[in-house]
Predict the structure.
Amino acid sequence: MQPDVYRFLEVKEVGEDGTFTGIASVYGVEDLGGDVIDKGAFRKTIAENPTVKILWQHDPSEVIGTGQVKEWQGKILLEAKLDLDDPVGQKAYRKLKNKLIEGLSIGFQTIKSSWEDVEGRMVRHISELKLWEVSVVTFPMLPAATVTRVKSTDENLEARIRELEAQVSALTAAKGTPAEPEPPQATEPPPVTTEPAAIDHSGLAASLDSMLALLQ
């Protein structure tokens, strides 16, 4: 059975080691799909196993970390860590840090639910669920599901890389060769099945320096 998806994860901060905390769910809030998770729905699944996998775009083949969930002040608190040794985990870290992706969500199996007629439309109330995973996603279902702060691992190195890239583009244009255009942003919603490997910034900086030497 495919897990349901309920997107409401607010990440407070991502540390340099890939750790972060966030709100995995709140009770009594209707998402854009017409679902409301009722108070206590997580109680049994947390008691059975509070550990969850962190996935990339709900793809079970892309496990990019692990986390722990617990009830906290009427919410479900997530404490997790991204696997920065994994290329996809590195990519998720960079995109969160640069706010290119700000949405996260949970995947779960509905165990018990009921329906409520709200002014002529049906709203599903989930009273018990089994939590499977938490994902970094491109398109959250709730507008509030955003990342608020991510720390950089090496701000000076990244600034140097941007400077070198700009210099290479300027030198290329001066020689009459147009710079390679930026690839278009993806417009289709997740799940994403194939992603490029993460960039090794230290190697990129050295390569760009070499390119500058050749072009000058």
Observations:
- Strands lie at 4-6, 10-14, 19-26, 35-37, 51-56, 59-72, 75-82, 103-118, 121-137.
- The longest strand covers residues 121-137.
- The chain has two domains: 4-137, 155-215.
- The helical segments are 43-48, 87-97, 155-174, 201-215.
